[in-house]
Specification:
TIM Barrel; 269 residues; alpha/beta; five-stranded parallel β-sheet
Length: 269
């Protein structure tokens, strides 16, 4: 486990390398398919829905506090942006905010320079959070939609299981309706980003723009194809088409209709 000064040096190296661009760090996001050699965790029958991410951090506050202290020190004079993975209840955000506030007070008492701005975000990847969006906008400063886990939990399909991973299309009405509720409720009140494999697919990215998302996170290799799609896209037209498709009552995937729209509009997909 890296010590406080080691973590601080690592975080500073990241912040120094981006020439003032915003950087969002996650709190320790292990468990499920993410493991660390120096962290022993109990064997779980269903680790994807077990003791992981922010649940582990809040249960092991020493680990979480050390990381937050290192991040706050590394962010001195700059913007501090940290995001909580696997948030299920609003109290998890509030509890983390309390830890951050205590660490800021500790910095002031000991004369450490503070960040210029402190922003706390939450990952939306647990379906229960979809019914707490109004409250989430009051306790978090920004949100990021984790489409990989959100789809996995909504469809009860393990994304690492080849027998079911491709069984459910993310471009289905139920999933896109869930994403639209996030864009509609959170979008007007706070910055909303979206990450996961979905955002790096040009056709899916086109649908996400139609839903109202304007900040997409993806692997570097996906940026070129998605950018080419965006440059050819009329956002107003795709928003109208997506809205029309979501109003239907069939449960089938919308992929064929979105492909036809892209072809007719001359949008690379």
């Amino acid at each position: 486990m890296p010590k406080l000064k080691e973590q601080q040096a690592l975080y500073e190296s990241v912040l120094n390398s981006v020439d003032g661009k915003p950087v969002t760090f996650r709190t320790l996001d292990i468990g499920g398919d993410k493991v660390l050699p120096y962290m022993r965790t109990a064997t779980e029958e269903n680790p994807a829905m077990g003791w992981r991410a922010i649940r582990l951090g809040l249960d092991r506050p020493g680990l979480l506090r050390t990381q937050l202290r290192a991040l706050l020190r590394a962010s001195a004079g700059r913007e501090f942006r940290v995001m909580l993975p696997m948030v299920t209840e609003l109290r998890e955000v509030a509890q983390t905010r309390q830890i951050i506030d205590r660490e800021l007070a500790h910095m002031r008492r000991h004369g450490h320079p503070e960040p210029q701005r402190v922003l706390l975000g939450a990952m939306i990847e647990v379906p229960a959070l979809l019914w707490q969006l109004d409250g989430l906008t009051k306790v978090a400063d920004f949100v990021s939609v984790g489409t990989n886990d959100l789809l996995q939990f909504m469809t009860a399909s393990d994304r690492s299981n080849v027998r079911v991973a491709q069984r459910f299309d993310p471009l289905s009405r139920p999933f896109l309706r869930a994403l639209k509720s996030i864009a509609d409720v959170c979008g007007p009140q706070m910055p909303v980003t979206l990450c996961g494999e979905l955002a790096g697919n040009p056709l899916a990215a086109m649908a996400l723009i139609g839903l109202g998302f304007r900040s997409l996170s993806m692997s570097p290799a996906s940026i070129g194809p998605v950018k080419a799609m965006i440059l050819a896209l009329n956002a107003k037209n795709v928003a109208e088409e997506v809205q029309r498709l979501l109003a239907g009552d069939a449960s089938d995937a919308l992929r064929p209709a979105l492909v036809e729209f892209a072809k007719a509009a001359g949008v690379p997909h």
